[in-house]
User: Which sequence fits this backbone?
């Protein structure tokens, strides 16, 4: 009986905290960038790519400085939506290929499914990447009221085709390709020739505009930006001439294009937040922005992003691959305009958002932890360790322990192919100075500053926060391209965030402690479920569209179109 009273009291407290006099559940807006690097957000100290709206979101709210993701896109999205480490359900391997039958387990209730039970209207715009071999694996069958976007890992910025290289699995030269833009299950051809970032932004604005604000909204906006587009190489921008003029100070023309992709992404964030204000929803909203993993400066899906000064790229368990860029704003925060340095993981977003939505306050997923109090109050996190990954196919794994201080790595992705120090510093004399006025006049800042009880954001405050976030000096350690971690490594992340020194010989007890922890997780691992591409999935079988090929009625054959 006593436990029932405690739960009831917690529920009453929760609903009083998140009440605005009407709807007691806050609107939740989750915006995810794809493969955007640590150094590609200007709040981290680089002047090269201006991101005034994303910066303003963090400066007005909370910048999550020790937020970790998975190293690649499918596992990151799975971790977020399940609240469970991917290795527990065989999702720890490489991302899903187009035409690969690897459904996310149906017995795991996803975040949108839980939020629907709490009265939320749930919408996904953009990337899914968690299975579409059958209709019941697609977003509208996994908790979303609507989905406008793509099922696979990436599409062209203008043609909306998903491209799958067939050589690795079947030694077939070239790509299979087909349209992968769907409204629910229906393929949509009408947007070819329109810029993807703009289209996904417009769809998000429509959802907010048409939403009944008396009901709680969950909007998940999964942008294509800044992943490569068509054929895994395209860096699509609205106007190359304008791009070259705007980013003239960047020597590499491909990085100029990438910079504009990120800049357009930033404008999208501004428009979404401004629309929340216009609908009088911002005062009862939680807006979260993050990148799903680090940038891929070189190699497969090279986008010319930068994780500087962190070491490693996407695919790796070094900081450049997994130390996420994440900010959160809400008027419901008790503490605002500060840097949160407590240890957090992408699985924690699941439990945290369920909590703020009015779910069971005692609920905790297997791995995700409710971090709302740490975020809102700046109190210590309940998390003391993070399993980074166990890749049983590529034979590498890693864990962070000791309250986030020490990292233990065992092996490396593809024999250390991406373990070096990469990426533009963004701090050359050619780059223009940081434009604080642009931050203060951004759509995000103007929207937030118009709220009651907002904290005034000043130039002095911005400079103070930004200087604290700039770790380009690596705590005084030399940033070098050192040897890969092919065997075992221990890094002191507090004193050496750039992972310049392997302490495996100096810290044998840390190695023993963390390797023992990692071994316990290995015993709980479900083997990777990666499969070869199913040859029956070819889009040519369905009017040049990707479709749920394992359902007999999965193909929309009556769709007429003209190829862009």
Assistant:
């Amino acid at each position: 009986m006593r436990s029932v009273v405690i739960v009831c009291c917690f529920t009453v407290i929760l609903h009083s905290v998140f009440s605005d006099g009407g709807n007691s559940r806050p609107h939740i807006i989750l915006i995810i960038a794809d493969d955007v690097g640590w150094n590609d957000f200007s709040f981290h100290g680089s002047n090269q790519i201006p991101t005034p709206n994303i910066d303003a979101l963090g400066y007005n709210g909370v910048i999550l400085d020790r937020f970790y993701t998975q190293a690649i896109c499918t596992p990151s999205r799975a971790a977020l939506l399940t609240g469970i480490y991917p290795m527990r359900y065989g999702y720890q391997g490489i991302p899903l290929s187009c035409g690969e039958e690897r459904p996310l387990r149906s017995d795991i209730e996803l975040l949108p499914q839980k939020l629907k039970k709490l009265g939320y209207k749930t919408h996904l715009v953009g990337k899914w990447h968690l299975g579409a071999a059958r209709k019941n694996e697609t977003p509208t069958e996994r908790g979303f009221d609507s989905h406008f976007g793509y099922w696979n890992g990436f599409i062209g910025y203008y043609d909306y085709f998903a491209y799958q290289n067939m050589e690795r699995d079947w030694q077939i030269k070239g790509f299979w390709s087909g349209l992968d833009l769907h409204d629910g299950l229906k393929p949509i051809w009408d947007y070819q020739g329109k810029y993807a970032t703009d289209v996904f932004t417009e769809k998000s604005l429509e959802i907010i505009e048409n939403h009944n604000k008396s009901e709680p909204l969950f909007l998940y906006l999964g942008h294509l930006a800044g992943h490569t587009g068509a054929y895994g190489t395209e860096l699509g921008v609205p106007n190359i001439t304008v791009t070259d003029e705007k980013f003239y100070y960047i020597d590499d023309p491909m990085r100029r294009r990438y910079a504009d992709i990120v800049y357009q992404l930033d404008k999208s964030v501004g428009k979404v937040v401004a629309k929340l204000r216009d609908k009088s929803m911002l005062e009862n909203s939680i807006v979260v922005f993050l990148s799903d993993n680090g940038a891929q400066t070189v190699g497969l899906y090279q986008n010319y992003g930068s994780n500087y000064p962190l070491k490693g790229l996407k695919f790796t368990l070094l900081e450049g691959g997994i130390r996420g860029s994440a900010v959160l704003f809400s008027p419901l925060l008790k503490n605002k305009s500060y840097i949160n340095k407590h240890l957090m993981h992408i699985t924690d977003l699941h439990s945290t958002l369920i909590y703020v939505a009015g779910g069971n306050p005692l609920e905790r997923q297997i791995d995700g932890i409710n971090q709302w109090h740490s975020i809102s109050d700046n109190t210590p996190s309940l998390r003391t360790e993070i399993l980074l990954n166990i890749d049983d196919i590529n034979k590498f794994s890693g864990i962070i322990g000791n309250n986030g201080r020490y990292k233990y790595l065992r092996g490396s992705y593809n024999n250390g192919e991406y373990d070096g120090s990469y990426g533009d510093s963004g701090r050359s004399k050619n780059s223009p100075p940081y434009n604080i006025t642009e931050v203060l006049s951004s759509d995000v800042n103007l929207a937030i500053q118009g709220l009651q009880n907002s904290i005034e954001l000043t130039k002095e405050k911005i400079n103070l926060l930004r200087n604290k976030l700039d770790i380009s000096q690596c705590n005084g350690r030399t940033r070098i391209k050192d040897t890969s971690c092919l065997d075992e490594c221990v890094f002191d992340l507090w004193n050496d965030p750039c992972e310049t020194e392997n302490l495996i010989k100096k810290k044998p007890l840390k190695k023993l402690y963390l390797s023992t922890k990692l071994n316990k997780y290995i015993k709980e691992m479900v083997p990777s479920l990666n499969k070869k591409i199913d040859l029956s999935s070819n889009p040519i079988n369905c009017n040049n569209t990707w479709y749920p090929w394992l359902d007999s009625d999965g193909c929309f054959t009556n769709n007429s179109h003209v190829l862009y």
Summary: The longest strand covers residues 27-33. The first helix runs from residue 2 to 17.
